[in-house]
Amino acid sequence: MRVSLTAFFVVSLASTLASAQTSPSVTLDRFHLAISKSDRAAAASILAADVQIFESGFVERSRDEYLSHHFESDAKFAGAVGRKVIRHSERTAGNMALVLEETETEGNYEGQPVKLIGTETAVFRLEGANWQIVHIHWSSRRPKP
Description:
The chain is of the alpha+beta class. The chain is built from 5 helices and 6 strands, in the order αααββααββββ. Helix 2 (24-36) runs antiparallel to helix 3 (40-46). It is globular, with a radius of gyration of 17 Å.
């Protein structure tokens, strides 16, 4: 009986992950593209209603809060600069996933040169066939001289 229960859970997990339309990493790429294109609807479809976004010591505690407060400034910034992923990893366990990225951001924003090193942690939950972001933690700094 123990073997059949284990097999059931393994097959169940595999079919759950196989039903996902895309990976958490691709979903995160789509989220960043939505921000850079100022596509509020696309960004909203990727964020869970209860998402929590941490950045620079501030917290936005829902999709609606982020979209009504910080999304516009993020979109303006992301549309003006380039973002390059320099390190990336993904881990999945059941219906949860974690994507970790280190990035370089360069360009000009509001007439000023920008060069930043960033880190991002994104936590996902599989909802039906779609991965949704339930938590993001963003951090950035200037490069060392």
